[in-house]
Amino acid sequence: MDSSDPAVSKTLRLGWILLAVWLPLGLTLEALHGFKVAVYLASQLRRELWTLAHAHGSMLGILCLLFASLAPRTLHGQALTGAGRALRTAAILMPVGFFLGGVLNSEGDASPGILLVPVGALFLLFALVRAALGSRSA
Amino acid sequence: MGRARPARETIGRALAGRSWSDERSGWAILGAVPAARIPLRLFFPLIVAPVAVMGTLALGPDPLILEPDVLVERRAEDRGAPHCGTCHPDQHASWWGTYHRTMTQLPGPRSVRGEFDGVLREGVDGPWAPLRRGDAFLMSFPDREAEIALVVGSHVYQQYFERIDSSELSTYRRLPFLWHIEERAWMPVGRVFFHPGDGVPGRHAALWNENCIFCHNTGPRPRMRTTEAGGGEAYRSFDSRVSELGIACEACHGPGRRHVERHANPLLRYVVQFEDSDDPTIVHPEKLSQEREVSLCGQCHAQRLPNPHERIFEFMAGGPTFRPGDLLGDHVEPLRIDTPSVDPSDPDLFRKRFWSEGTPRLTAYEYQGVTTSPCFEAGALRCDSCHRMHRSARGREVDPRAQIDPDLKGDRACTGCHAGMVDALERHTGHAPDSPGSRCVACHMPRIVYGLLGIRRSHRIESPDPRRDIEAGRPNACTLCHLDRDGGWVAREMTRIFGRPFEAPRRRPDRAPLDVPEALASLLSGDVLQRAVAAQHFGAPEVALESGAKAWLVAHLIVTLGDGYPAIRHLARRSLVALDEELELGLASGLADEGLFGDPERRREVISELLTRLAGHRDRFDVPPPATLLGSDLRLDLDRVQALLELQSSSPISIGE
Q1: The domain containing residue A102 runs over which residues?
Q2: A13 touches chain B (CB under 8 A)
Q3: Which of B15, B25, B282 to mutate to test the interface with A (most CBs of A within 10 A)?
Q4: Closest alpha carbon to B290 in B370, B214, B213, B216
Q5: What are the boundaries of each domain within chain B?
Q6: Is residue A38 part of a domain?
Q7: Which residues of chain B does A42 touch, with a Cβ-Cβ cutoff of 8 Å?
Q8: Residue B29 in contact with residue A100, Cβ under 8 Å?
Q9: Is B60 within 8 Å of chain A by CB?
Q10: Taking the model in full, what pTM does it have?
């Protein structure tokens, strides 16, 4: 198995894209804090959700890059394909869910977009289990 | 691919191996391809998040919008408490828990404290019912229904206002019943004001726009309009606005717009931290001078007139001109005992609001009390010497009821300056150190001020003097606990304790005999405020009498249930309830509203019945001293009681809050 495997290349590309999307979010949020943009600072819940979107997007991007680096040497066939697909799905759903949760949210509750987060979390869990089992059998 | 390699080796191979130059793998982005060859579309992800954030903030609802009501419109100079909270969350949170915040609110399940239960009740001029219909709170009267549009008060009692004009205007009128939060009871608004009789319908139907708006809101602008109605007639209407309902940040810290704009620059914020001078764009009350700090609180806690008086029209249009950091006297004239009346029909209008030696006897005169105290005139007393608006210096939560600094509770607010008193307490007070009589406020800030249907502490900090107090018709601090003592006894005791002569009073303004206990003479013969003060203290827990010696208190409180002022009857009833619980006399069933606030004939029957019940307990009490006008059979010396009652001033006193 090499890095030209579609599961690896897709995951690698997604990792870069995730970093390209969610790292600038962190920069944006820092600027909003720095310049005391009250319309952002006023919603405690939104601040928390978007901070989580930034953190999850960036960390899952890094996880995708690590997967692309390590998986070709440790996973095969369906394990590689399945784990890669689940990881990519999770890496998209979780930060997007956190971000959407902070769009048009009420004072006490996140927007319905937050529902993407537990779905993404299940995909992430599946990817981890699949990768762990695939590595053991490799 | 063989068995899994150690992770460190695998990562190293990946980073150093062919994948760095394999464009399909994506690693080329890191630098293997010259920047000029990177397609522009690859930069697209970089702007996705910033654009999404800006779009959401620009197009979504503004969380800083204060309250969706026609009344709420910030002045150009204001920013609003939610805005302040974005940078000062701890201060915002501590303010959030105060009753200042909730002084005026829109009606809603969280703000309305009254029981709108739909139960029909008997009012002064007919039956009425508080009821709820969907989201609306209403008062139903025989001829109409009034929907609650504003709620004023959230601590002791809550008043309700209806909106009475067209949708373009915002005039609010007080409804005739309030909810007493502490007593969990509805009562007529007239009961909390000092007016004789059970109330004239409509007498207290004040307009919020020309009264409450000034001190129960931030950035008030009554915007009064006077419209000619023809024939020389004119009528007033209001299109009022406030920056915020309730007392919020900018009421004390001044308008915040310049502060917000200045501190939006992060670099400047750090520069400011190293500056020696104070931030000129915001007011920090603790850094104000003594005079300006008390002025700040005095903008509401000082009944006042515009200075000069002709500015009233300016105030009724654009609101008060005082801003935090100003001197109060530059904008208004705080009322004093010698302030000329503005009502030709009542030349003593303002004089009646003070004890005859000048001490305020109503709440909302705290500024006048503090600024005439020796601790202010010759010392460093300020409002924040005792009170905190946020957490204490040690980070303790402040009790919202009086907002006393928790670090200074007990006597510590006083002993900060009067340190010598700590070790000399018993010698100074003549009381055991743990006695209520050894608390500084018991003698130097006695409860002689009426407000919110209760007697509150005076803010004129001074020492008791039996002759000065009693000859001025003012309650004496000593006899508010030692209810069975007269002024002569006080003079003798103070002479003994302090080792210097104190004179006994030579006469009372009401001519009541001086050998009658001072508090009892005040209860029966005093003016309306003296009677109110005595009525509350007769049931106070700190009374210096054993339970077996309290029968005469009960007897005279029962007599006071016949007072012509509903407020005094209410205070007497409250004290009777407390004594009834302590002494287990079984009087409670006779103390219902129906018997005490309705038909005077029925009231006389109730009083007679209660006195009879009390007499049935004569075996349980000590023989009362003769000066208490109660015989050993617990029956009143009615001739002497009647003689004292006839000394009451026949001139009615009407005092609004």
Answers
A1: 6-137
A2: yes
A3: B25
A4: B370
A5: 7-59, 68-282, 290-463, 470-657
A6: yes
A7: 63-64, 82-83, 85-86
A8: no
A9: yes
A10: 0.84
